[in-house]
Design a protein that fits this description.
Blueprint lengths: L5 E5 L12 H13 L4 E4 L11 H15 L5 E4 L5 H10 L7 E5 L8 H14 L3 E6 L1 H4 L5 H10 L3 E6 L4 H10 L5 E4 L5 H6 L4 E4 L6 H12 L3 H18 L6 H9 L16 H15 L1
Parallel strand pairs: 1-2, 1-8, 2-3, 3-4, 4-5, 5-6, 6-7, 7-8
Helix pairs in contact: 1-2, 3-4, 4-6, 9-10, 10-12, 11-12
């Protein structure tokens, strides 16, 4: 397996009551995941509330995670946006010596045509000193990066090594798996679909739920990679309810409620997001009890 096969987690940014970053909880979460089998960690993705943390906070978050990690698992850093120039400037200004790859989201808000998306990632590829994982999440960007564009980028740029697909679109996943270059990785960003995608040839997942239940979740992923569908689906069925719950109001409000119930961090999010409702928190506690029983 390469370093980006298996279970990656889109780690949250824990906050204190005063909305400052809770670096103690962050460090504990990193250790908890590494100790329980998580294969790599993605810093400052959507689940990390990347759009509402400052550049100084992002630098401090990277420092905490790299210090705690001590090179034990690969690290991926989210650097993306809807301004190509700003993305390039951030890549150039960031110390990437402890980072194994970038996760770069397809440009949002501007809703570029496919050629614009291609040219954006071409420019990013040409300045990045490390590998790049493309990130396609149409529900947040309002623009789908087509299979054709993804495969064109995969074939044209050696440092574009993977795509995190998070469009909940099985047909698009299967087209990518069928037509991709041999070494190009298809990584699921959909916790509810990941097992089927792995069994069809996917490399693994960048998961939201995995950081809260890493041992069981990683076991499911590894069974899938081994082709043991029967045993893997036993775990998948066990996790179905909690997976649906964490996305029912907002990500990361849902996963933060899970982590609070597990006493790993607080459920606090930054505006314009709001915490999971009391009803959702109660439903999450009940779902966790079912998993543990």
């Amino acid at each position: 397996m390469t370093k980006f096969h298996g279970t990656g987690i889109a780690i949250i940014t824990p906050f204190n009551e005063d909305l400052t970053v809770d670096h103690i909880a962050l460090a504990n979460l990193v250790n908890f995941n590494i100790d329980n089998g998580t294969n790599y960690i993605v810093i400052s993705g959507t689940t990390g509330e990347s759009v509402t943390i400052t550049q100084a906070e992002k630098t401090a978050i990277i420092k905490t995670i790299t210090k705690v990690n001590k090179g034990r698992v690969p690290l991926v850093l989210g650097i993306g946006g809807n301004s190509t120039v700003n993305v390039i400037d951030e890549i150039k200004a960031t110390d990437l010596s402890q980072i194994d790859a970038l996760l770069s989201v397809s440009p949002y808000y501007s809703k570029p045509q496919q050629e614009g998306i291609y040219q954006h990632f071409k420019a990013v590829s040409e300045v990045s000193p490390i590998d790049i994982i493309l990130y396609n999440v149409p529900g947040r960007t309002s623009s789908n990066m087509s299979t054709e564009t993804t495969l064109r980028l995969a074939k044209d740029f050696k440092n574009i090594i993977a795509v995190k697909e998070a469009g909940n679109n099985v047909h698009q996943y299967l087209k990518l798996l069928r037509d991709k270059p041999e070494d190009f990785l298809i990584i699921s960003g959909d916790d509810d679909l990941v097992l089927g995608i792995i069994l069809a040839g996917g490399a693994g997942v960048i998961s939201v739920l995995g950081q809260a239940i890493p041992k069981e979740f990683t076991k499911m992923i590894n069974l899938g990679l081994e082709g043991n569908a029967k045993e893997a689906y036993k775990i998948h069925f066990k996790l179905m309810d909690i997976t649906a719950l964490i996305f029912s109001e907002n990500n990361p409000a849902g996963i933060k409620a899970v982590l609070e119930a597990l006493k790993l961090s607080k459920a606090i999010v930054r505006l314009p997001l709001v915490q999971a409702s009391n009803q959702l928190k109660q439903n999450i506690k009940l779902a966790l009890q079912e998993i543990e029983s």
